[in-house]
């Protein structure tokens, strides 16, 4: 994934963004080491955006923002489950991100640290940069005055919005698989892809399901970290997450039903095959019995000598086969 | 769906109704732009009914009623899950509607904004207009004095009442499918329709299940938005929603059982087919063995020369087949 | 269901009972229109028992007891789910009744209105009259002094006691079906009856399961409607309801297991059938191969000319069949 | 089950034990009718142990201990679910007991009444007498000073300890059944015993599962009935009950998996059988086709006249069968 | 498992560690009998580490630390479920440990007693010694000043960290089994190993699932036993435990799906086998019918005498077989 050029040459490349946003809608790029100066001012907040930062940068931001060792450790190692944890007067949020990249789902993590006057977002793995979020902040300068909890909301909103096309894709995949299941031909491929889909759904659920708790926890938090005007926005994001979780649950359940329906249809088709085989076997066995009959070597089988016997026997076989064929057709065995 | 003529030529066509209801049972059509004048009066409430409003109309009502940007955004985009949200002193409710239209279930959404002196209902997609609700208000003018929470109840009541015929239809469909399952003939069609029904039930459940929380939340709300005399009515609607949800759950469970019963019966039928095939194969194979026997070319097979041998052999084959047939009949293989 | 003669000629036939019970164990039949006079007295309570009352009677009791319009509406329409609702200082209870009538389960509803000085019970559908409850009240006059909550308990106790023989019957049905499942013969009938039983259990559960909430809610209610000495009795009824619910749950689970065990056994039996068919096919095919062999027309098959060839071949076929038979017996294919 | 000789000839045979335990570790057998005298003393408690008491004895203890009519009624009828109920200042506990008696599980009930200065235990059905508990009391006289809640704990501890060998036995049964499932031979017996085990587990769960609530309720009870030093002991019993419940749940789940694994293996084995049958059919059908070929009566089949034709044909059949055999072996059909 | 040499010759071999840690980072090995002297000091804590201690040692530590008889009894017997229990002002914690030892999972138990100035850890069964934890304490002497709750955290952290490679291994096993399931060959072995994996997962869940409650309970405990700065660390361990539990749940669910997918594929493969058998049977039966036909002994079968008849018939059989073969190929039966 291509990374944008760092916002300022003052900082190492893993620092995607490091800026001070004042309450009047202004914005200034700053160096990591100057953060403490800006934190001391009361008329704005600092937002630092990192992508897979190295230990040196993490050490700097830990010192500048006064972050707890455990949270920094989590951020360094990544591979956390979605969670929201309070360390003193700062909030540590972990969410999983998911994007469709070239027809495949790529998972990543975004960690966020929210303080009274700062927001730090750290991206890991496949994850789009939050340039759209920064652009939104520029478009809505009055929101900037709400403090760092507004960009945190905007980041979470972007994360959840990225889930939607994936669940839509899951739904389309299931629709295609349903068509395969209900088509006459049963293929191993269909069952294998149902299993694949189940695995993807489970993975997705591990990202979305705890996210609901995280969002509910952040939104309800009685502290001052979250601006009251931002809460309804977070409730909106939570609502989207719940809707995505509902979709996943419904898909999971339909998938289970699809599997058992598939088994029913395969068994049904097997019974059909058996009937068809039986019917054809009968159509072959009946004339075989007759021909075998006239292959007997009894000296006194008067019909063998009659000149009309052979044509009559051919006719008999033909009629027998025709009658059997009609019978099997009527019984739907053929 | 045919839309009624707007209540007043003062307003654009997407405004189905815009009226002021006073505490004495009176009613007056008003223009959207005059709403603020009527909101200032203390002896009645304004009810605006919209159908898929355009942005211009939404902007007017947002300004007139002082609605929150997020709620208006939700209403503009539709596709929300059922929810009840408080924005300051107004309540925003989303419910899903469902109707049988020409043998098919059509889903829609109704959004409602309730304030101390106003109600705004916005319909999306397939949804009957709430003329019946307005007619009820005219029939019961004493209810009009309870304020805008009574027509909100009436709208929710109408929505839930429309669910009932659909779940009844689901029940009838399952009854028909059960008959198919227990009939002698197993058809792919039956399994496919069971799957269809499962999908419809899941869709319906996504509409009804969160509705229970929504109704419980509105009914218990301690604020002043909801008139105390309206609460028992809301509890009644909640009760209906719970009953519909129970029906859906029961149907879902019976459907799962129907699927596994179907598999059992199909497997059982397969075993029956196998037995019948085996019995017929034996009935054909036994005479074939005998005819094959007398087709041997040994020079010293004394019976071949006897004149009574052929008729005796015919008799023997006949008796053998008859005995086998009786045996298989008794063992229920035929 | 035959209705007893109304307790008093003063009232219409749908009024099964209308009496005033004083605190000293006395009892007096009264007319519906006199209820208000007796409600004014402090030394007893009124109990009215109705069976599918018409609107006129309901209007009278609503006026006399001051009941809420919604509760009366529910009672008029019936088809409610079990619930307990408080309207001001009166309690409205709905429970489902079930009885075995001529080997079939008949469901009904009983609605009860409890006030500080009155009890009204309304029966709908198949339901035994509560004469036994009234007899109990006469046998235990000291309980009469506890007020109308004691006969309410007695009614609920009778309702729950009527469930017991039905769940016992369900258990016996499952026992019979188990025997069928484990018998050698697999019948469509067994699976169909398992499905029937599942449906009956689900229906029963819809009656019993919410009843537990209803009873717990009534028992815990802190108000004065429920006499403190009646609470332990209600806890006893709740206990019975929980036990019945446990039975139903266990039956439902065993039934699910029975269905999957049945499928396993049917599949197993199918495999057995296949083996048996295969063994018999081999027993027929082996001599057929031999007879076919000696039906060949080679001019130089020396054995065909030998006089002992035919008897030797008969012996050979006999031995081959016997050996095969023993082999298949040992492998348990026959 | 053999009953020990009643502790004192003063009392009827259903009274297993009736004694006064003083705070200094002393113990004195007393008559039922003298209980009230001892209850008046403050330096000890009375413990009465009954086995399926008749109504006369129950009437005496009800009067002596002042027990609630409902609890006595429950004790008289037995067949209660496990529960703990408070009647004024006395506690009524019902637990189910289970013992292995001659390789079969026998269920019983123990009811206990606990008052500030008394304990009454009533056993029903298969149940070991609590002589071991009484012996423990004699061994630990300092525990006797904690009052009647200590022997109640000891009784509950003995009940729960008796469950352990049964769940162990269940585990061993499942192990044996697993071996049967994974052995090559599929037997109806295995499936039937899996079903049996499921039924036993469900029965056991009905005893153990509510017991956890009962124990938690008793242990947390804030009243004075339970001596504070006894609480940790009750927590210990609760812990054992939870562990047994965990075992049962795990067994139930493994049993479900075992059933579906069994179905998979049976289906798999069926496919194997089909392949083997097919292979043998081919091995028989190929020579049959050849022999049938040379049984044709064309006048111009030059090979029939050759003297080497018959041996060559025998060789050909042999080679064909061998090649087919090897092919089927390699494809694992044989 | 090899045990390290006891830290001090003062103590019996089952005492792995017995030391006093002062607040300044110092550490001193002490004898068990001197513990009470060190407990009296306020500037440090005692940590005793035991491995399957005998009764004598347990008696000493019970006396020295003043532990409750029940906790000591639990420790002596082991085989407890994970739990956290408060006895007065000391905390008793039981956790299950799991390690991969030579490709097999070995389970053990660690019991911990935490007091205001002491920690005692007791290991049972397969379990690595906590030398790494002691080394960590030496590396971070500032943590030593937080009191004995920090080493308790470190022990729990080590226990949970040891789970991770096991769940990773489970995941790899499932991946391998999936490959087997989706390969063309169906093997009994695959199903058996799926069952094995399910059993292992259930065992692991019994260890991890209650651990979450234990950790949450310890972390939230309002008492003074747990230093406030240690709480975030415990929350971190809890987080890991939750993640492991999520993995196990997902694995369990995928395993269930794998089992049913396997059944579908086996059934599907059976249907394929049946079709292939049927096709080959037809390819053999058609020429057999023809050869049987010309084996008939009618005197007037003109074609039998024609010299081109035999070659023509050979050609006919060849063409018939070829056409059938193509037909079956096209229908995917071959």
How would you summarize what this structure contains?
Chain A has 334 residues and is α+β, with helices and mostly antiparallel strands. Chain A contains ten helices and seven strands.
Q: Which architecture of the domain at 1-138 in chain A would the CATH scheme give at its second level?
A: 2-Layer Sandwich
Please state how the strands of the largest beta sheet of chain A are arranged side by side.
2-1-3-7-6-5-4
In what range is the share of β-strand residues of chain A?
15-25%
Order of helices and strands of chain A: EEHEHHEEEEHHHHHHH
Shape of chain A: rod-shaped
Task: Report how far apart the termini of chain A are.
Answer: 58 Å
How does this model look, in words?
The structure is a homopentamer of 334-residue chains. The first copy, chain A, has 334 residues and is an alpha+beta fold. Among the domains of chain A are: 1-138, Beta Polymerase, domain 2 (2-Layer Sandwich); 266-330, Methane Monooxygenase Hydroxylase, Chain G, domain 1. In chain A, 58% of the residues lie in helices and 17% in strands. Chain A has helices spanning 35-39, 55-65, 69-77, 131-139, 141-144, 149-182, 188-220, 231-293, 302-305, 309-330; strands at 15-22, 27-29, 44-51, 83-87, 90-101, 104-115, 118-125. The first copy, chain A, has a seven-stranded mixed sheet with strand order 2-1-3-7-6-5-4. Chain A is rod-shaped and about 125 Å long. In chain A, 43% of the residues are buried. The interface between D and E is large, with 43 and 52 residues.
